Amino acid sequence: MLEQEFELKWDVGVRTACVIMDVGKPFASKIQVPHEYHTFDFKDMMSILLLRGIPPELKLGARFRLRVDGPDEEEAMRAMAELFTAGARMDHCPKPGCKSPPILIGYTPSTLTYICCGGPWDVARPKKEEEHA
Ligand SMILES: [Zn+2]
């Protein structure tokens, strides 16, 4: 069993929950967030959306502990860590005067996609070599 703490760099919407589930789907391991009275499942849409409403809430700046447990837990944690550490912290969208943190709606090896009041936009991710340079 592996545990790691992350701080969210964006807000979580329904499409963010889909992104999180897509990243976890290929792995046999359980991907969970242990909480006071309940363990939330990051492979389950309702579970992710429920956690948005329970302090410290799944939103920009929230810290949460991710627990990965199973035969491929190292690969699964690596994939989840890559998702939750990718890109810059999105305190607000590019529209002047907007104070809402964007929601992450897309995640590929080359691109992060966010959405807010002005519609969606893409941010290119640095290549692996550049990240470690
Ligand atoms: Zn906005």
Distance between the termini: 30 Å
Distinct bound molecules: zinc ion
Q: What's the rounded overall pLDDT mean? A: 93
Shape: globular
- Derived from helix and strand composition plus strand pairing, the structural class reads alpha+beta
The figure for the number of domains is 1
Identify the CATH homologous superfamily: HPr-like
**Residues in helices, as a percent range:** 25-40%
Q: Any idea of the CATH topology?
A: Histidine-containing Protein, Chain: A
Indicate the proportion of strand residues: 25-35%
* Rg from alpha-carbon coordinates: 15 Å
Q: Which CATH architecture is right?
A: 2-Layer Sandwich
CATH class: Alpha Beta
SSE sequence, one letter per element: EHEEHEHEEEH
Task: State the helix count.
Answer: 4
Major sheet strand order? 1-4-2-3
| Unreliable residue stretches | none
Total strand segments: 7
Architecture blueprint of SSEs:
Blueprint: E1 2-7, H1 14-24, E2 30-34, E3 39-41, H2 45-51, E4 63-69, H3 73-85, E5 103-107, E6 111-116, E7 119-124, H4 128-132
Antiparallel strand pairs: 1-4, 2-3, 2-4, 5-6, 6-7
The protein binds zinc ion.
Zinc ion (ZN) binds near residues 98, 100 and 118.
Structure description:
With 133 residues, the chain is of the alpha+beta class. The chain has a single domain, classed as Histidine-containing Protein, Chain: A. It is 27% helix and 29% strand. The chain contains 4 helices and 7 strands. The protein has helices at 14-24, 45-51, 73-85, 128-132, and strands at residues 2-7, 30-34, 39-41, 63-69, 103-107, 111-116, 119-124. Strands 1-4-2-3 form a 4-stranded antiparallel beta sheet. A 3-stranded antiparallel beta sheet has the order 5-6-7. It is globular, with a radius of gyration of 15 Å. The mean pLDDT is 93. The site of zinc ion has 7 residues, from loops. Zinc ion is lined by residues 93, 95, 98, 100, 116-118.
